[in-house]
């Protein structure tokens, strides 16, 4: 661990001994753990069903990309035992809010939505607010924007004469004369009157506008029969206003239930959480948040959800969550039970039907938002240049203007190929890309392939006086770096820095290694430099895979034609050039082969052989 390695040997031994003793005391119980750096600062808070197993995993064995940087800074830890997983969930949330650890998912209140509130006062009133507090008031929403909330409140003010003033005046105001206030400033108002209005407002905001409309239609009819046309017109205007407010919201579910629907996506060390707000069966808004994450993706997603509801009393009736990527049903059941027990709200992870469709919609929105973030970064040329400059600083180099990256591709040793991509000032230079068919290596030998391709590339660079790269990037760790350096230095006399990109178990860029012997460069996962390396690795892998598929497909075509008696290399090439593809040869008629000087008998045999081949 980096911070331990930087210490005095005696201090290193003391720290390791302290951690070893604490690990021995870990219980087989649920709880939370707090990881500290050498300054005693809490840098990560986590929860565990079994503390002993989870905390030990940080200090024993190898680590993937998501914990590598975190683990490098841990020199001490504490733990707190809880009575249940639910208590661990809530405690983790409170500890994160208290300590704001740098490696935890920290929910930023970067956008709030307006709510309509019925105040809990002797003389209640309606107000629009973005601040939700536990004051026994009734909150309804969120609304898509302040205008939608204000329009709904304005309608309710006309329908129900609650007080409008912040403080009671000495005498009645204009609202009383308009019939929009019961004037508690001058007249005594019975509690039953308030209760009736609050119940009706609550019913309206919970989707009961049809009942309110029916009552208004009845009153409008009665007023018209009594020849009170002004009053009838007022009821009609109120009905029109209700329709105008309600039709702006798109109905997406057959029921009228309030739901929060969550989805998340992860890529390149970042997570995006998307929330769809459905109120009264209507999808009224969506909100997305992106942030770097360091733990397991589903655990960090649930940490986000827990923080989101920790101070939010305006709960929906139902919360829909996506299933974990690893499909751990026991973990999912525990999450559902814990959230339900804590929030007293129904929590579901739907697998089919309309509910699953809206969760998938949230997942897709999260993926799109994350993709947009990366595309915007790629378009920012200044950031790309800066990332290249910063990468040079990390590697102890003067500059990294031109990067050449290599990747090998083969499936079970067949058709081995390699590819090279070039990035100049952090941006792909596609006209400089190169493809290589491996010639001297037989079977799946990554080191041998790396040596051949590096040799061929830089022999040509030297021979033709081409531009030398500032940095060479290989796909792999110590072995690939050593193989590349051996060819460059000992065979070609070139001293070009070589770094390797190591992938984790999920084939994602995990860490950067450089030097001989190779050592890990502790790049922050949320840095522009790390993202640049991920883009390079993704691009060279894509280019190599595409080339391998093309080569393999062509090889299969050639082998199928070569297996037909009477077809040699010359005729095979002529047929492919004339017809364009194996599919068109198969669909051809005997007459179509005559321009190639292929007789009808051989042509018929070719067609029959290809059509009999099930592949």
Could you explain how this protein is built, in words?
Helices cover 47% and strands 19% of the residues. It has 615 residues and is α+β, with helices and mostly antiparallel strands. Strands 13, 14, 15, 16, 17, 18, 19 and 20 form an 8-stranded mixed sheet that branches. It has a 6-stranded mixed sheet with strand order 7-10-9-8-11-12. The chain has a 3-stranded antiparallel sheet with strand order 2-1-3. The two termini are 53 Å apart.
Short synopsis of the structure:
With 615 residues, the chain is of the alpha+beta class. It is built from 20 helices and 20 strands.
Task: Please describe the topology of this protein.
Blueprint: H1 2-5, H2 9-24, E1 31-36, E2 42-48, H3 51-59, H4 65-71, E3 76-81, H5 85-99, E4 115-118, E5 126-129, E6 138-140, H6 146-159, H7 174-177, H8 191-205, H9 209-225, H10 229-246, E7 250-251, E8 259-267, E9 270-279, E10 282-292, H11 297-310, E11 318-320, H12 329-343, E12 346-348, H13 353-379, H14 381-395, E13 402-411, E14 414-424, E15 427-428, E16 434-437, H15 446-464, E17 471-475, H16 478-491, E18 498-503, E19 509-514, E20 519-521, H17 528-562, H18 569-579, H19 582-587, H20 600-612
């Amino acid at each position: 661990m980096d911070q331990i390695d930087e210490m005095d040997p005696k201090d290193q031994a003391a720290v390791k001994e302290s951690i070893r003793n604490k690990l021995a005391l870990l219980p087989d119980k649920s709880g939370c753990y707090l990881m500290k750096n050498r300054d005693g600062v809490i840098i990560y808070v986590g929860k565990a069903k079994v503390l002993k197993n989870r905390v030990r995993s940080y200090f024993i064995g190898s680590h993937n990309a998501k914990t590598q940087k975190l683990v490098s800074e841990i020199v001490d830890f504490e733990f707190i035992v809880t009575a249940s997983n639910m208590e661990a969930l809530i405690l983790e949330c409170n500890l994160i809010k208290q300590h704001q650890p740098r490696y935890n998912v920290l929910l930023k209140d970067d956008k709030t939505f307006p709510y309509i509130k019925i105040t809990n006062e002797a003389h209640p009133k309606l107000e629009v607010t973005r601040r939700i507090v536990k004051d026994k008031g009734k909150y309804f929403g969120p609304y898509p924007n302040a205008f939608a909330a204000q329009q709904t409140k304005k309608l309710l003010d006309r329908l129900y004469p609650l007080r409008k003033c912040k403080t009671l005046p000495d005498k009645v105001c204009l609202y009383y004369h308009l019939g929009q206030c019961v004037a508690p400033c001058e007249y005594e108002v019975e509690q039953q009157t308030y209760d009736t209005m609050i119940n009706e407002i609550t019913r309206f905001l919970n989707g009961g506008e049809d009942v309110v409309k029916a009552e208004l239609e009845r009153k409008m009819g009665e007023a018209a029969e009594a020849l009170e046309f002004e009053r009838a017109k007022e009821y009609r205007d109120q009905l029109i206003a209700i329709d105008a407010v309600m039709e702006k919201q798109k109905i997406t579910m057959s029921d009228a239930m309030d739901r929060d629907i969550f989805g998340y996506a992860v890529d390149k060390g970042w997570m995006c959480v998307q929330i769809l707000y459905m109120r009264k069966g209507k999808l009224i808004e969506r909100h997305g948040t992106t942030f770097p994450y360091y733990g397991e993706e589903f655990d960090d997603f649930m940490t986000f959800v827990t923080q989101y509801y920790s101070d939010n009393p305006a709960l929906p009736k139902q919360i829909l969550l996506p299933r974990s990527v690893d499909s751990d049903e026991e973990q999912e059941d525990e999450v559902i039970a814990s959230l339900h027990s804590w929030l007293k709200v129904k929590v579901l992870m739907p697998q089919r039907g309309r509910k699953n469709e809206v969760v998938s919609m949230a997942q897709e929105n999260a993926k799109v938002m994350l993709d947009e973030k990366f595309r915007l970064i790629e378009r920012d040329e200044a950031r790309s240049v800066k990332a290249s400059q910063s990468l040079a600083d990390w590697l102890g180099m003067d500059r990294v203007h031109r990067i050449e990256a290599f990747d090998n591709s083969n499936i079970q040793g067949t058709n081995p190929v390699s590819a090279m991509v070039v990035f100049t000032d952090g941006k792909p230079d596609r006209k400089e890309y190169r493809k290589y068919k491996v010639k001297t290596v037989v079977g799946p030998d990554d080191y041998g392939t790396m040596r051949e391709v590096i040799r061929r590339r830089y022999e040509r660079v030297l021979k033709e006086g081409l531009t030398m790269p500032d940095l060479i990037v290989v796909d792999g760790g110590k072995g690939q770096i050593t193989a590349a350096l051996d060819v460059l230095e000992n065979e070609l006399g070139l001293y070009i820095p070589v770094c390797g990109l190591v992938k984790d178990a999920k084939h994602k860029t995990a860490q950067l290694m450089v030097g001989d012997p190779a050592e890990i460069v502790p790049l922050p996962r949320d840095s522009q430099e790390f993202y640049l390396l991920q883009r390079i690795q993704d691009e060279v892998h894509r280019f190599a895979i595409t080339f391998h598929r093309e080569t393999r497909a062509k090889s299969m075509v050639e082998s199928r034609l070569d297996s037909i008696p009477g077809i040699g290399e010359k005729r095979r090439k002529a047929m492919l050039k004339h017809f364009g593809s194996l599919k068109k040869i198969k669909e051809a008629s005997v007459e179509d082969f005559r321009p190639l000087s292929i007789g009808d008998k051989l042509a018929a045999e070719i067609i029959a052989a290809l059509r009999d081949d099930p592949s």
